[in-house]
UniProtKB/TrEMBL annotation:
Pfam families tied to this protein: COMM_domain, COMMD1_N
Entry superkingdom: Eukaryota
Similarity annotation: Belongs to the COMM domain-containing protein 1 family.
Organism lineage string: Eukaryota, Metazoa, Chordata, Craniata, Vertebrata
Protein name, UniProt field: COMM domain-containing protein 1
PANTHER family associated with the record: COMM DOMAIN-CONTAINING PROTEIN 1 (PTHR21199:SF1)
Span of domain COMM: 118-186
Biological processes per GO annotation: copper ion homeostasis; negative regulation of protein localization to cell surface; negative regulation of sodium ion transmembrane transport; positive regulation of protein ubiquitination; regulation of proteasomal ubiquitin-dependent protein catabolic process
CC annotations in GO: endosome
């Protein structure tokens, strides 16, 4: 039973570290985690455990380790001597935790690494221009494109573009050239 409690506490510690570091939850502090999960441990003992788990999570997350890489990494950590290594229960808990949380941690890291606004949405339609600027009737088809730009959680900005048939053809030609360039690079490697 003590092993199960130890595994749950370690999993909760890893979750707390992840919530604070990767998801920005400032309510979860080191003192909160110690008092809730390891009240019988001294502050120094807890800090060593907390820092070790935080460091291991950082290494695993920054490398975005898949299952094979994680197993090799954890095996190396269990072979280390002294307080810098992991015991097999800690390695197992860390492995289970990473398997369950890898995608969310990765999404968070990707979101944190975007400095510029990104494309959040795109809408388009084709309309007819019914009049020209001097009052003459034109009846030319135009493509109207609305781009939604912004960062997650922030207010979006919209950019509206209007393309006539020639500009649509030019954009399609440039996109085809770009695809050819990408294909040539991919096929070379």
């Amino acid at each position: 039973m003590a092993d199960a409690d130890s595994q749950r506490s370690l999993s909760a510690l890893l979750n707390g570290i992840t919530q604070r570091v990767y998801h920005g939850n400032t309510e979860i502090t080191e003192d909160f985690l110690k008092n809730e999960l390891y009240p019988g441990m001294t502050q120094d003992e807890f800090r060593v455990l907390h820092d070790k788990m935080g460091s291991l999570l950082k290494s695993i997350a920054s490398a975005d380790m898949d299952q094979a890489q994680l197993e090799a990494f954890l095996t190396a950590q269990t072979r280390k001597q002294g307080s810098s290594g992991l015991n097999s229960d800690q390695a197992a808990a860390l492995g289970r935790f990473w398997k369950a949380h890898r995608s969310r941690v990765r999404e968070s890291l990707v979101a944190q690494s975007h400095w510029e606004p990104g494309l959040k949405g795109l809408r388009w339609r084709v309309d007819l221009h019914t009049s020209a600027s001097k009052g003459t009737v034109a009846n030319n088809p135009v493509a109207l494109v609305e781009l939604e730009m912004g960062r997650t959680g922030e207010k979006s900005e919209f950019v509206c573009l209007e393309f006539d048939e020639q500009k649509v053809n030019l954009v399609l030609k440039k996109m085809a050239e770009l695809q050819e360039s990408i294909d040539s690079i991919v096929h070379r490697s």
